[in-house]
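Here is a protein:
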Amino acid sequence: MSGSGAPGPGAAPCRFAHYFVLCGIDAESGLEPDELAVLYKWLQADLHGKSSDTADKTSGENFDQSPLRRTFKSKVLAHYPQNIEWNPFDQDAVNMLCMPKGLSFRTQADNRDPQLHSFIITREDGSRTYGFVLTFYEEVTSKQICTAMQTLYQMHNAEQYSSVCASSSCSMDSLASSIDEGDATSLAKLQRYNSYDISRDTLYVSKCICLITPLPFMQACKKFLIQLYKAVTSQQPPPLPLESYIHNILYEVPLPPPGRSLKFYGVYEPIICQRPGPNELPLSDYPLREVFELLGLENLVQVFTCVLLEMQILLYSQDYQRLMTVAEGITTLLFPFQWQHVYVPILPASLLHFLDAPVPYLMGLQSKEGTDRSKLELPQEANLCFVDIDNHFIELPEEFPQFPNKLEFIQEISEVLLQFGIPPEGNLHCSDSATKLKNLVLSDLVNDKKNGNIPSNALNMYELLKGNETIARLQALAKRTGVTMEKITTPLTEKEKDGKLSCEELELRDYKLNVQLREVFANRFTQMFADYEAFVIQAAPDMESWLTNREQMQNFDKASFLSDQPEPYLPFLSHFIETQMFATFIDNKIISQWEEKDPFLRVFDSRIEKIKLYNVRAPALRTSNYQKCSTLKEAAQSIEQRLMKIDHTAIHPHLLDMKIGQGKYEQGFFPKLQSDVLATGPTNNNRWASRSTTTQRRKDRLRQHSEHIGLDNDLREKYMQEARSLGKNLRQPKLSDLSPAVIAQTNWKFVEGLLKECRMKTKRMLVEKMGHEAVELGHGEANITGLEENTLIASLCDLLERIWSHGLQVKQGKSALWSHLLQYQEREEKQEHSAESPVALGTERRKSDTGITLPSLRVSLIQDMRHVQNMSEIKTDVGRARAWIRLSLEKKLLSQHLKQLLSNQALAKKLYKRYAFLRCEEEREQFLYHLLSLNAVDYFCFTSVFTTIMIPYRSVIIPIKKLSNAITTSNPWICVSGELGDTGVMQIPKNHLEMTFECQNLGKLTTVQIGHDNSGLLAKWLVDCVMVRNEITGHTYKFPCGRWLGKGVDDGSLERILIGELVSSTSDEELGKQCRTPPQQKSPTVTRRLSITSLTGRNTKKAVAYFETSDQIGDNEEALLLQRSSCKTFCHYVNAINTAPRNIGKDGKFQILVCLGTRDHLLSQWIPLLAECPPITRMYEENALLRDRMTVNSLIRVLQTLQDFNIILEGSLIKGVDV
């Protein structure tokens, strides 16, 4: 602010409005092509690979487009005050957002209805400023501009006639596309509608008035601007000069205090606004009714879920205000969380390159008339949620979890909507073009009845279009609804009065609907995160140490939090707690122990406290039972009371000390305002100036205190930005500077952000995976890392897609990574065909000492692609890319494959611009190194996700040749089992030790059953081990045996169950060595296993015989009953195993008995029976385990600890045993 009479430094933050802005045409500079449109066309030419020369030619003079449809440079004609310390005026950004398409021209034949839209400017620190704009049309009085437009039309027409002569059909198509297709029947008719003749037509140009405010008081600003516009267009001049009203709202209307309402005065009517109290939901003035009508409830919940999971959201509409309403509506519903990434609800044409940003964003793009979704080329779509607002249509990413209790949630919102008469499916039955046509013909006629006359040009336009079928239908519709088009009647004026009253009622209903819908959404988060505080990790002793070590510290116990949640919530919550908005929310919670609480956090915490008071830590908080919001009436009543009972009234507008001759009124023209009276505010005689000054003093004291503690404010802000930035390095695009240098710097920030995100993700994946492996080894506590691991891998897939989408020359397909892979595959296959040689491509088989081993598996990027391409279950490019990433990660080849892909530099240069991440050599090498670190752990992310695909397996049986025959004369068979199923019994071809088979994914392999029918002369077979390999993932499993199969040898078993172990990927020689029986130090030797199990097997038979014949077992009656029960159970199990239709030896039967006893928690009851059985004394020496009472009791106590565990046995272990 400037001037001596400016209010004190504390006044500005408490003002209702910070700036009043006027934008339009600069009569002195005349018609200038819009530089931003030129830059946009240059960017488009660059996107499609055209030369810059071509772009320059097309941007200079575009003769194909009608001059009335071209964009011209607008300018900020005036803004008051000149500057405010708290909110510096950004002229370029305001001009760009007030008139995103630049100046537009109309004639009397065109629709010139005023349009209202709003915008938001988000500064780099995340603070926001709101703008509210009314665009209207003023008659052009400058002869120079009218003549220039006439000249442009003459050039345009000459160009069109020459095109018609060259190719009539093509010309007709191109001309028809610029006007409504139904009316484009001839060139003469087109020119009649879309032309300008200086002698016949009146030229109008757009101008806009704008209020810039610190808070989104949309309804109040809309009313103020409409009243200003009415004052300009009315036949009667306003009661006071316009300067009085603008001065009043800029300097004399304060912000309403929290929890209070305020009345101030427009030109004709008072305006009321209200502000929520400190414990209520934050201010939101955009009507959620419109959002639900535009999208429909189901679509809105889906888009809301995508926003929560921080995907890329692109809103698409012809109407700027619709873009803003939907964006603000959805982000409002996020409470208590806040969107942390790029947020541009209205994306100007010059910033379209920001759609290339490899970060989450929420942007709004204006659609051109007649442009459908298929013609819109977007840099990346793998993780994009596309929202076509005008057509009531959304496109969702392929994989994302549903919002918890989605059906009950939608039902609750439906009930609220229906109470207010809003259909949950939305209300967009009337097409946008039909609405515009109706407005074009009818609105001027209806509105003009106020003035009692109809201009001749409007009548001519109506007569001109009278024959059109659409207009005829609209006329009939208008007559049915009571709007006559021939005569002016007095009842309409009464209807307008009724309409005015109902407008106020509608506004109150909108306020009540807004708050009730927001309460429903806020209640869901309150229920879902009622216990979040218990899992916040507050390890740092002070704020400085926390900020400096933020990146290395874990601030939330995610695993414990997830393990405490209902299972249906887990898919969503496991993704959501990885987002930046959740991380910032937790950061704010930790910071609140040293600083004042964030307002959102304070309100949210107070609501949780309230829930806990009512429920007294109800167990319902941990269940998935849906709890409806109980505060709807209370919230609606508080807002109604504020609007009905006004708390504060601002100073009335009054005459200012203006020069004589200023404030002159001319109907239809916005006057030139007197800058000296608007540049400064009144002297400090306001009641609210002192209040704001006190607030400022308190803020200054807090700032001095934080500096005194020792942490510099700038340093603290730097730490905070770094601590909270993960892909958020660029919070907002700068609208003011669009030089190539700034664009290059922005892209460099993207590259740095992607590299940092890759480092953090790989580090997190390693820590989580290593922690899980430690749990499997018996260290630490178990958690649900399976779900968490899948979430982290899905986020890695998303990161790789964003990296491959950055800096693309031309987009091909929805997945940039898969497109790159396909082009690489095509080139490699061409080279393979051209360089074919007689040498076979298959790998050599190296034999081990046993004479046979698995052939080595060929490592090939192309081969892995073919595996994915053969998967009929995957239908899209995005799905194929993710499957390929998962397969490469499971095979520990992701870094190697990507390095091979990027080694083709010619292809990389063809596909990517110079600034792309994949062409920054140093960052690319670091990126591949981070991915290489993932090879330190084992992933089964492909096997565990694609459970229904057919997978080829290869098995090899390795016999011990020195002691037995390599080949058996009997008929051998094998059955392979895994976590997801088994193959069933498969016959092995005679005289073969190796076989391949294909079956549905078995998951991780667990057991192999091997056996034969004991036929032939050489039936006995000594098997060392069985090797089975998954031919897609390369995982090789070893199933050690070291036992005989055959009657009259070993324990006489004809089949054995072998337990598998995963073999680490090694060279062929090492694999051959690993196929031998394990050495003594790793596991018991064959002889040792035989001695123990065979003895116990014989004992079991004798014990059963004894139990079945013995009646007197104990003296005590209870003990007797218990022992008899245990005896019967034991005998039942043993008999069931003996009668099972399986050729299992004594050792195998005993293993099954132990397994069943463990599963059914009976072992601890059976051991004492065996120990007390008389045959034991005859079979064992005195120092044997079963004859030592103390040792037996210790064993029983150990076995009793198994009672606490629920044990599930592999199906192959107990197949055929019926107990």
The chain has a mean pLDDT of 75.
